[in-house]
Amino acid sequence: MSNSYEPLDVCVLIPCYNNLPGLFRTLQSICYPPGKLLVLVVDDGSEVPVTLDILRNSNINFPSIHVLNLEQNSGITLALNAGLKWIEDNLCVRYIARLDCADICHPEKFYKQVTFLNANPAIGFIGSWCTFQTPNATLQYGYSTPTAHSKIIREMHYRNVFIHPTVMFRVELIKTLGYYPTNYPHVEDYAYFWRMVKRTKTAILDDFLVTCEINVKGISIKNRKKQLKGRYNVVSEFGSIPHLKLLGMAKLRAMMLVPYYLILLLKNRKRRAN
Predict the structure, then answer these.
(1) Strand, helix or coil at 198?
(2) pLDDT in tens, 97-121
(3) Rounded to whole angstroms, how far apart are CA atoms 235 and 50?
(4) Is the terminal CB of the chain with fewer CB neighbours within 10 Å at N or C?
């Protein structure tokens, strides 16, 4: 694919593993002018491989899709890095965005994020607020965060301020930072985003632009203890404000003792109370 044409605004990177229904729902939610956005689906060795023919036969009215098929399941980090490499080698694009299968975009998500980055050239990496919910919406809560760079840095010591499916960043950053780190299993995004925060100005849009699915069988929940240990290691490695670093590590140790379903119930109860 030539990279000599007018740059695309956005390439949306979506890894997929055995989740065609979720992929269909996500693709149907993407809104942006034709010819200015490309979706790159990285099929991570699914039992039934994702193909363009399958997507075209699904009645999804979204022609700007490329599928990159990996021969075997390699895990999300290697799938994402394969996607980033393909983008570097094949596209002329300004921004890279991320979604996961079953995430639902607000109709104005990409318009608002592209407009913000175009208007703020000093900012290289952004996210937004989002909503988490189970497929039947019995559990639901909003995820809001600080929006300014200085406060984002402080909050990153306690949690990942950037929810993966909300992010968008300038393509130039992968030339200086490289790809997702492979030595932080289950928290590759947290480590990568810490690198972003230290490299460029960041921001969060105070708007709920994505609905993320809470999947009780998903890799994040199944590997929660490993994920918390990984987050502990990330804060230990990247934390830049000593007292916040110690507090963040202490919080993560405490979270290892609390069952995840209790956290979800508390968040859901708080939402209903509000």
Answers:
(1) helix
(2) 999 999 999 999 999 999 999 999 9
(3) 36
(4) C
